[in-house]
Design brief:
OB fold (Dihydrolipoamide Acetyltransferase, E2P); five-stranded parallel sheet; alpha/beta; 8 helices; single chain; 32% helix; five-stranded antiparallel sheet; Rossmann fold
Length: 257
């Protein structure tokens, strides 16, 4: 008796790209496209509703990036094989091949697609947690040499701050605020994922979908409801930042709580 086919979701803001990928998947045996999405929020909803075995996610989508979709999905405890569709340069693409999470380079090659589907099927019984998948991708996508300084816009001027001096960064209404001990301003990065990719992932943790913190700048860790935590940072206001459920265990393990 043959194994049940993989179910797949295809998410891309370009209709032609979605149609082409769905067509190529239709030529393969053992995989069935059960849904499509045209942006990040649609992808998040479809993933939660359809629970596909594998998701083909464009990294750059309106509303939420592919990586942000997976981060939010992970908070619900869902698990799926994630194959990112990328337009990164060849060096980044080669690095992705070392990871459990696969990639496809646009325009999608039929042979490469078949390999990606095979890998998704091979790891189906013991898929890595999505948080682990994302941690590996963030480390690979970060430049080999990270900038020592980050430009922060304060009113009509830009202030260069040392990356290690950043306490935290938060996003609200599509605007990213960066806070240090002396400066508070906005970033030109479009998403927290973009900012995080330029920082040291061992120091800067995405503790919540809206917050990125420097773990060396945490003043207090306050127990909260349902065994979660709130972080009090070392700024003058002792800003409180929530820790999402998916990151609570990581924090406990790191700090031996």
């Amino acid at each position: 008796m043959s194994a049940a086919p993989l179910t797949a979701l295809v998410a891309d803001d370009e209709q032609l790209a979605r149609e082409e990928l769905c067509f190529l998947l239709g030529q393969l045996e053992g995989i069935e496209v059960v849904g499509q999405a045209a942006n990040g929020p649609e992808a998040l909803e479809a993933l939660a509703r359809l629970e596909p075995d594998v998701a083909f996610l464009d990294i750059q989508m309106p509303g939420l990036t592919g990586m942000e979709v997976v981060r939010q999905l992970n908070e619900s405890g869902a698990s799926a094989a994630v194959i990112f569709v990328t337009a990164f340069d060849q060096q980044a693409v080669e690095a992705f091949e070392l990871n459990a999470v696969d990639y496809l380079l646009k325009p999608v090659d039929a042979v490469r697609l078949a390999q990606a589907v095979h890998r998704a099927r091979a790891r189906r019984p013991e898929a890595l947690p999505l948080a682990d998948q994302l941690d590996r991708l963030v480390r690979l996508m970060a430049p080999a040499t990270r900038p020592a300084q980050i430009a922060v816009r304060v009113q009509e001027r830009y202030v260069l701050v040392q990356a290690d001096d950043i306490l935290y960064a938060s996003v609200e209404d599509d605007s990213i605020t960066i806070v240090t001990g002396q400066v508070s301003g906005t970033s030109n990065d479009r998403t927290l994922d973009e900012l995080q990719a330029r920082l040291d992932p061992a120091v800067f943790w995405r503790v919540h979908r809206s917050h990125l913190v420097n773990i060396n700048k945490i003043k207090e860790i306050v127990p909260w409801f349902s065994r979660n935590y709130i972080l009090r940072m070392k700024d003058a206001k002792a800003t409180e930042i929530p820790v999402s459920r998916s990151q609570t265990r990581r924090l406990r393990d790191y700090l031996k709580l």
